[in-house]
Specification:
With 296 residues, the chain is an alpha/beta fold. The protein has three domains: 92 residues, Arc Repressor Mutant, subunit A, CATH 1.10.10.10; 111 residues, Periplasmic binding protein-like II (D-Maltodextrin-Binding Protein, domain 2), CATH 3.40.190; 88 residues, D-Maltodextrin-Binding Protein, domain 2. 43% of the residues lie in helices and 22% in strands. It contains twelve helices and eleven strands. The strands form three sheets. Strands 3, 4, 5, 6, 9, 10 and 11 form a seven-stranded mixed sheet that branches. A two-stranded antiparallel sheet has the order 1-2. α1 crosses α3, α1 crosses α4 and α6 crosses α12. The model has no long low-confidence stretch (mean pLDDT 90).
Length: 296
Amino acid sequence: MADLHPQELRILVAVAETGGFSAAAASLGLTQSAVSHAVRGSEAKTGTVLFERGRAGARPTPAGERAVGHARRILRMYEVMAEEVRAAARSGRDGVGVGVGGVLRIAAFRSAALHLLPPALERLTARHPGLRPEVRVVRELGAGAAGEVAAGRADLGIATLDGARDLPPGLLAGVLVEEAYALVHPVGHADPRALPLLDWDENCGSRTRDWWREQDWIPRATVKAEDDGMVLTMVGRGLGMAILPELSLREAPATVEITGLGARRPTRRVGYVTTPESAATRAVRALIRELRSERA
């Protein structure tokens, strides 16, 4: 297979992100025929169809999704290479001792973005004022934060790391915290387990399935909220009880009470996810150090 050139990679990404050849051409300042020719050339080089064409535009095939993800990651490494080469030139060696600069793209689910990232980013940017973190909050459903890394839209993701949730191939991960779940209910309620269950799509049902099935006192959820913050608010207003992880409980209002679930309580692991190439970059290494020091 012949190598794809950087411009071909940019065109693949643009077509995927704009949904069509004409829109991609406009975004890149090219003609539609040049974009069509480049995509056909990329398909010839890879030996597979990368986009489904139709009246509504162009949509990546499964092979195309993989190709676009790799294209984003390769283009990102061109950007990082320029920053790290400049750092090495300033230091005269390998950049050690020189502040980390440039953009650092992070994807995280809501409670991790609220409670794990801020102190780590505060220390990181204090040490490296030239670094510009960009945080994208994603729902931890489907591909989640790990999928953002695999697709090349994030350099590092904060994700749940459980056996039921397999990582996309080729990614690296490390555990930052293992947190327990607890019962959350209105303050002073005499029998909180008798209350209706409030839940949200990202919660533990899929990650602690065996434990959940063994609990005959847990009813079917009567309300599915948008996120864990909304669940806490509803519990605080006396509308039911919930089973939430520790990160979510850091913003618990005074109107709720937290009760342990015993020695066999469910837990989940939260950690970072990155690619092998990003793991070798100075910015990602620095962020991982700060995240780990937060755990310590």
